Amino acid sequence: MAAPESGDGNNGAARMVTLISSDNTRFEVEAAAASLSQTLQLTILDGGGGGGDGIPLPNVDSATLSKVLEYCIKHAPAAANGGAPNATAVDRAELERFDNEFVNIDQSVLYSLIMAAHNLEIEGLQSLVAKKVADMIKGKSPMEIRRTLGFPDPTPEEQAEMNAHMLEYGWAYE
Amino acid sequence: MADGSGDARGKRLAAEAMEDRLSGLPDDLLQHILSFLPSRDAVRTCVLARHYREQWKSVRAIRITGDNIRTFWGPTALNTFVTCLLLFRNKLLLDEAELNTYEGDEHSPILENLILQFHPNHYNLVEMGASYNLKKHSLILKNLTLEVKCAQVDDRIIRILELFHSCGLPLEKIKIKHLPTLSDNQFPETWASSGSFSSEQKT
């Protein structure tokens, strides 16, 4: 994130852009990394984000944004190679290791991340988190899922409604 | 859950906040999450909360995989499940379809015989088939026979047959049956009783 470049992206040095989180923290990052976000890519292609201006991201707080950028910076080289024709197996394994570590985090952070990925249209990140959440609930009973996701235990009425639904969906319980 | 103590109340409040947030995810995001689950798990989330009731119907993936298949009571339960899944889901294109073996045995594909029955008033199956990602899962085509039942061969059917063929299904394995008097209520029953999924007949 830290780099002295603040100018107008000549061919030599990597072009930098500044992103501003909802709580007004400025993040300077290579345009290539920020462009993993479809939304930001459009702004950047239009010449935005350079110099002192910065791109405001009113829906993303600084904690989440720094996590998002960590992902983008790690994935930018592979994305620049158009998905990876020249990526070696080692590179790919390293990315996979990074991804696994990356989502090994608190649920509330996962939630903020997936919302940010959705807002910023970072497809890979959204899939990564979605998959992680799916893994958390895979093979569990409804009650177990509710507990995993942190839902409160159902009230008797809710329980009755759940039971009625399970009967209706008998074909999914055989 | 213990009640009364401030701690328990705090926990419950935190839990409710989490529920609110998860319910607050946009539908497409929830559906994206569900798309990574085995299809049966995805369907089962309908009981979780009101907001989840119909989400599974719009999931753009079908996943019926080895590990998950072993949790079905048997081929009949599996067949019923697939039938209901296809009938009740919304008619949306699929991004992915993963269909693996019954016993996790690479030699017994579950799709030995796939019957596609087309009905003028039911577009579900056509859209489903037309978007199968068969190239990714060519395994299922090895022993697959495809039966097509329809009133007449129209564009939709040609499209789906071309797709299967382009993915390596030999033409001689495709059977087309004309059913000129297909009625609305006949449709689900025939499909349900077609027994199109293999059992563990291997020795």
TrEMBL record, chain A:
GO BP: jasmonic acid mediated signaling pathway; protein ubiquitination; ubiquitin-dependent protein catabolic process
Highest rank taxon of the organism: Eukaryota
Pfam families with a match to the protein in the record: Skp1, Skp1_POZ
Pathway(s) annotated for this protein in UniProt: Protein modification; protein ubiquitination
Domain SKP1 component POZ as annotated: residue spans: 16-75
Keywords: Ubl conjugation pathway
The UniProt record lists the keyword Transmembrane helix: no
Annotated SKP1 component dimerisation domain residues: 124-163
Protein family according to the UniProt entry: Belongs to the SKP1 family.
Function per UniProt: Involved in ubiquitination and subsequent proteasomal degradation of target proteins. Together with CUL1, RBX1 and a F-box protein, it forms a SCF E3 ubiquitin ligase complex. The functional specificity of this complex depends on the type of F-box protein. In the SCF complex, it serves as an adapter that links the F-box protein to CUL1.
Subunit annotation: Part of a SCF (SKP1-cullin-F-box) protein ligase complex.
PANTHER family: SKP1
Protein known as: SKP1-like protein
Record organism: Eleusine coracana subsp. coracana
From TrEMBL, chain B:
Organism, as annotated: Eleusine coracana subsp. coracana
UniProt cross-references to InterPro entries, sorted A to Z: F-box-like_dom_sf, F-box_AtFBL13-like, F-box_dom, F-box_SCFL_complex_component
Superkingdom: Eukaryota
Span of domain F-box: 19-54
A Pfam family: F-box
Name of the protein in question: F-box domain-containing protein
Residues spanning the signal sequence: none
